[in-house]
Design a protein that fits this description.
Elements: E1 5-11, H1 19-33, E2 39-43, H2 45-55, H3 57-63, E3 66-69, H4 73-77, E4 82-88, E5 91-96, H5 105-108, E6 113-117, E7 138-141, E8 168-175, H6 178-182
Parallel strand pairs: 1-2, 1-6, 2-3
Antiparallel strand pairs: 4-5, 6-8, 7-8
Helix pairs in contact: 2-3
Amino acid sequence: MSQSKGICAFAYNNEEINYVLMAYICALHVKTHLKNNDFCLITDEGSLSYAKQLISVKNLNRVFDTVLLTEDPQEESNFQNVRTHYDSPWTEFRAPFINNNKHEVFEISPYDKTILIDLDYLVMSDMLDSYFELNAPVSMFSNAKNVRGDNALWREIWLHDLGIKMKWSTVVAFDKSEAAKTF
């Protein structure tokens, strides 16, 4: 029996960053490099409406196989995850980073095997296709490099001086098993 396979990404715009545009660019890379390239956008009505005006419905339909609308998770929880963004060595700004419902992807994903991807992860090869073939309920990166190819900073490798090595939720592959649900 064939299992459905696909990529999911969350994108909720804020007043400074158009995350749906980032999702569009991410999906274009997925479509270019992966054979398992079904792409599910998870967003809210306001972010999608703005993207329809900016990018066009035709172009959005070309890259997003499924669009799932949720409420803005920040409004539901009253939790503000505000971050400082460094646009350049000379510019910084503060804006909300909306991912309060990322943990719901197991329930939200329409696929039997899913790769949850952050929009700032650049898909530049077919390597992620191999994640769909892994015989593991959950797979995550334990190493990271920045855009320049440098290793992550020490504080980004270990959660504590004496403790546990970081797992990156930038890319998470999972199936619909009980083990993955528990995780």
